[in-house]
Design brief:
It is built from nine helices and seven strands. By secondary structure, it is α/β, with parallel strands linked by helices. The protein has a seven-stranded mixed beta sheet with strand order 3-2-1-4-5-7-6, sandwiched between helices. Strand 1, helix 4 and strand 2 form a beta-alpha-beta unit. The longest helix is centred in the N-terminal third of the chain and has 17 residues.
Length: 241
């Protein structure tokens, strides 16, 4: 079975000031191989080439390190984690972070639990839930320093999914493509309604490529009203205006 390249991994992560150890590499490589094997029987990713996985999944996931200090005890929830991005690479390279992987599809979480067991990771859990339902769960609501999501949804929708999980003083970080300015402008009122405050936009290109990416960081300055999130399906059908 193919393996990812340690040298290429280091090159891709250098711009984010992440220096993967040999142990980090071994765990990421095991994760990669398990994902490719499972991908034969269920749809986890359309990206399977080892270099592309390093660039578009692992490096992209770890870009957060350039705007957030992950070298300390903190709690992070990955909303709509899918095949484990960005939460699992973050946990592997920054083991002090307590990570929750939330997804609505149990089959994906079963796979992620297999990876967690194979890598002997601690302080990481998988939660089976719709984003809206989890945001109303008192065990999850406003319990996290950081919420992240690479989910393919407009920012207006993502903020209602994710800000309810964030503690006051924490942040929601959305992974987006290059053109994010318009999404931010459309989401301003929703951000205010959900307790969000200052918004910062961080643009970058993935290593040695023309792939443009954006991280949108939204700080939480007040508690989210108990009215939000609305019931499952409503945020996407009727985004907050």
């Amino acid at each position: 079975m193919q393996s990812i390249s340690y040298s290429y991994l280091c090159q891709c992560l250098e711009m984010f000031h992440v220096k993967p150890s040999q142990s980090d590499y071994d765990q990421l490589n095991t994760y990669y191989q398990m994902m490719i094997e499972k991908n034969k029987v269920m749809n986890l990713t359309g990206i399977t080439d080892p270099d592309e996985v390093v660039l578009k999944h692992f490096a992209d996931s770890l870009a957060i390190a350039c705007i957030t200090d992950l070298n300390k005890n903190m709690s992070l929830i990955d909303v709509g984690t899918g095949a484990g991005f960005p939460g699992l690479p973050i946990k592997i390279c920054f083991p002090e972070v307590k990570v929750t992987l939330l997804d609505s599809l149990q089959k994906r979480l079963n796979f992620l639990n297999e990876v967690i067991d194979a890598l002997n990771l601690n302080d990481i859990q998988c939660v089976h839930s719709r984003a809206e339902d989890g945001g109303r769960n008192p065990k999850l609501r406003e319990q996290f320093d950081i919420a992240v999501s690479r989910a393919v949804a407009p920012l207006q929708v993502l903020v209602e999914y994710c800000l309810p999980y964030v503690k006051v003083g924490g942040s929601f970080i959305a992974y987006k493509t290059a053109d994010a300015e318009e999404e931010v402008n459309k989401a301003r009122k929703a951000i205010d309604k959900l307790g969000g405050g200052p918004v910062s936009i961080h643009r970058f290109s993935l290593y040695d490529s023309d792939i443009q990416r954006t991280l949108i960081k939204i700080d939480k300055i007040k508690s989210t009203s108990n009215f939000y999130p609305r019931k499952a399906g409503m945020p996407s059908k009727k985004p907050l205006q």
